[in-house]
């Protein structure tokens, strides 16, 4: 194909395998019959925080099927639970879609004012966000994709996309230009996920308020949530540890009391058994003694009767 990139040794090294094959960057499936099915581009493969991979280029093409969507650019990384989307819409086609769905009265959009009404500041209000996300969900439900391919955070823009900003001469999307210009929104969504991990999540970025500009987001985000100070957190930890120690001590004391009560009871029982045994032995010994004495007395009398004359027995 070619020997390499001019004066770019590192790029050349990364672009070829060790045995000289060029890495096209395509993700394909080798079928049982030996044919190859193209799936995606490797550069569009993104790993989320759960370890799940999503194909951003595939999602871009999927959600661009909506009639009023010109372009969809999906962003995600390993700090996020799910992808976000930058949605470029056509004002007139969006107006037609709103009209067909009887949404003109709710939105206040008319044929005369839709061009002035459907601007970025207005489009990122709840009613439009929910409407566009509803259309995206309709597309998603027709697929067999897992839930990680659902886009919960979107930024809608009606600005013109052309070769001077976000498109190449062949009308491919310059993703890095998009990510750079809409970094204020991407940073805000990523901050939401960071707060979720720290236990102070503020929910979806599309919460009904208009998405503010970059400076407003940065200035306002510092006071969104009151966090527990380090000293307060240490105090809570000490209380929790102390409480746990007291519970453990109480359990040990209970066990000791039960053990002592058991030993006392066993000791009393032994003493009773020992006392009863002694009494019974004495009783048995006394009984045997009395029995022997009676037997000796009877034998003595029998002896006297047999050896002594009758008249002497009477005197005796």
From TrEMBL:
<dbReference type="GO" id="GO:0016020">
    <property type="term" value="C:membrane"/>
</dbReference>
<feature type="region of interest" description="Disordered">
    <location>
        <begin position="197"/>
        <end position="229"/>
    </location>
</feature>
<feature type="compositionally biased region" description="Polar residues">
    <location>
        <begin position="198"/>
        <end position="207"/>
    </location>
</feature>
<feature type="compositionally biased region" description="Basic and acidic residues">
    <location>
        <begin position="209"/>
        <end position="227"/>
    </location>
</feature>
<protein>
    <submittedName>
        <fullName>Octapeptide-repeat antigen</fullName>
    </submittedName>
</protein>
<feature type="compositionally biased region" description="Polar residues">
    <location>
        <begin position="264"/>
        <end position="279"/>
    </location>
</feature>
<feature type="region of interest" description="Disordered">
    <location>
        <begin position="264"/>
        <end position="316"/>
    </location>
</feature>
<dbReference type="GO" id="GO:0005783">
    <property type="term" value="C:endoplasmic reticulum"/>
</dbReference>
<feature type="compositionally biased region" description="Basic and acidic residues">
    <location>
        <begin position="292"/>
        <end position="308"/>
    </location>
</feature>
<dbReference type="GO" id="GO:0004467">
    <property type="term" value="F:long-chain fatty acid-CoA ligase activity"/>
</dbReference>
């Amino acid at each position: 194909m070619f020997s390499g990139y001019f004066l770019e040794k590192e790029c050349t090294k990364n672009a070829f395998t060790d045995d000289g094959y060029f890495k096209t960057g395509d993700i394909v499936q080798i079928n049982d019959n030996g044919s190859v099915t193209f799936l995606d581009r490797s550069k569009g493969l993104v790993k989320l925080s759960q370890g799940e991979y999503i194909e951003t280029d595939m999602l871009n093409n999927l959600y661009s099927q909506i009639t009023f969507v010109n372009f969809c650019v999906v962003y995600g990384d390993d700090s996020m639970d799910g992808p976000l989307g930058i949605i470029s819409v056509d004002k007139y086609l969006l107006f037609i879609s709103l009209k067909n769905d009887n949404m003109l009265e709710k939105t206040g959009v008319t044929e005369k004012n839709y061009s002035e009404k459907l601007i970025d500041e207005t489009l990122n209000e709840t009613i439009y966000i929910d409407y566009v996300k509803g259309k995206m969900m309709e597309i998603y439900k027709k697929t067999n994709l897992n839930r990680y391919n659902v886009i919960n955070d979107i930024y809608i823009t009606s600005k013109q996309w052309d070769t001077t900003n976000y498109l190449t001469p062949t009308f491919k999307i310059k993703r890095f230009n998009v990510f750079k210009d809409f970094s204020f929104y991407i940073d805000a969504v990523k901050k939401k996920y960071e707060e979720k991990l720290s236990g102070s999540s503020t929910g979806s970025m599309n919460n009904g308020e208009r998405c503010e500009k970059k400076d407003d987001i940065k200035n306002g985000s510092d006071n969104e949530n009151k966090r527990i100070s380090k000293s307060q957190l240490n105090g809570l930890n000490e209380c929790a540890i102390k409480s746990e120690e007291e519970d453990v001590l109480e359990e040990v004391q209970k066990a000791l009391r039960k053990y002592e009560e058991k030993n006392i009871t066993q000791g009393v029982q032994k003493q009773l058994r020992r006392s009863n045994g002694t009494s019974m032995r004495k009783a048995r010994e006394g009984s045997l003694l009395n029995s022997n004495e009676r037997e000796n007395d009877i034998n003595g009398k029998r002896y006297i009767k047999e050896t002594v004359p009758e008249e002497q027995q009477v005197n005796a």
